[in-house]
Amino acid sequence: MEAAEGQRGRDGGGQRRSPLDVIMSQIRRKRSASDRKPLGRFLSRTSERTAIPEDAEPENRGQSPGAAAPVESQRDAGWGRVRVFLQRLGKKADSRSLSLAHCDLTATDLLELASLLQFLPQLEEMDVSWNELIGGGLTTLTSHLQHVGGIRTLKLCSCRLDADDVAALGEALPSVPVLEILDLSWNSSVGGTLQSLLGKLQPSVRELHLVACQLTAADAAALGGLVAVLPKLCVLDVSCNPRLTQEVDAGGFGQLAASLSHAVSLIVLRLQACGLKPDDLEALGASLRCLPSVRQLDLSCNRSVAGGLSGLASHLAHMAHLESLDLHLCRLRRADLEALIQVLPSLTALTALDVSSNKEAGGAVHQLVSVLPLTQMRRLPMSSCRLTEESFTALALVAPYLRSLDVSWCKVVGGRLPLLMDALQPSVVLELRLSSCGLTTDDLRHLADVCRRGSLSSLRVLDLSYNGSVGDAAWAALFAAGGLGSLEEADLSLRPLTSAPCSAWLPALLGALPRMPALARLAMQRWSAGPQEEQQLRFSVKNRNIRLDWDPDGSDWKTSSQEESQAEE
């Protein structure tokens, strides 16, 4: 013992050290060891420490301190591996949320991710959407889901899942008994295989998203049998599945529509672009009258319902809590609009009605406004509705209450914009869309005055695209006016196959950028500028991390031309 103490009391050169030196050396060793403890341990355990009371009894009571050390060390090492993996993908580590969408994950990445799930016992959300290379190999991940049994949200959108992936996911679902949100949208091979999955869903599921999955009538029938045994289901989105209603003999959609009457907790139902026909609307309406809890109903882009809205309208009156009704691009006829106008007084909770891209709606604005609960309306888009002077004047009555104002592709707006702008309440509107409205120089000058008064101080989205007749001085006045401090997105693009110089007003725009701190996207397609001006603009937006959509040469004309023709249709 004395020899050992003597050895500890000597320095590296064999010289005996004083007791004070020995004590100071021990202190330094302890501090050094503390400094070497991995930071990940403290980051990963923060939520646990806050969740456990200070007087709680430790789990390892009765055990020696050294017994827990290997476990802690293993956790630290595992969390370190998680951090390294996420950093390589440009993501931040979070013990409760794992967001890996758009990361170009490979099969190798998926294998590594699966091996790391054991170090994420607190995980509640996992999103690996838009990683198409992992399709066909999902079993690698699902075989480890038991390590994250507390997961509540699972998103696998656009991963090119095949039938084997769907089956593997179905087998793994019992290991996540508290799953609330499942999103398999944009996986076209899910259609026809859904039955192997639905029977494994737990009663905890609240949201089911199956957009553009090529669902069949048999899938619709399987969904119908499912909704009755999911007591908490509040969101069902099967949009963009036209095959649901194509196989008439199978009667799949009819079974789904009839079963919806048992979905007593349903709040949101989205059936956009499902190929619905008048008979489908009538069957759907019979169930919806039993669901007063529904707040959002999306039936948009179902062009075959034209002339058959009356079969649904009579049932809408029973939906006392309906807040949003979307019927855009449904080719509504005058009779459809009249049936809708008859039932609107019963929808006392309505705050959003979308009948845009229905040409006949332009002539019914006055009647719509007369029966809508104006003071609570927040959205009433009227783009591509063939507004007349009378209907445009009627729209001004509801404008003071709207959060979103959209009259794009309505030429009657040109020269009459002050009527709409003067009706706005200060700091109320959040979106203003005036694309292809034939705006004049005076219109834009008046818009500049409205900005200067601060009436658009809360505006987040401003779309002035395809208004090439506006003079340079008006563009400059708009940006010099200020008052757009909340603006996040601005679109000033010109029409396809056109071009114009922006040199006259570009300095005003550059000077306005510092006064628009929230701006995240700026579109200026087909405006041209000199090399020095272009360099200055790109430098300014790069410093601000603003996304710039700008193609002065107009090489994007094919895509834009297609979009324009679709809007005009």
From TrEMBL:
Gene3D superfamilies: Ribonuclease Inhibitor. Residues 1-14 have a biased composition (Basic and acidic residues). Pfam families: LRR_6. Residues 557-569 have a biased composition (Polar residues). It comes from the Eukaryota. Residues 1-75, 547-569 are annotated as: Disordered. InterPro entries: Leu-rich_rpt, LRC31, LRR_dom_sf. Signal peptide: none annotated. This is Leucine rich repeat containing 31. It comes from Poecilia reticulata. The lineage of its organism: Eukaryota, Metazoa, Chordata, Craniata, Vertebrata.
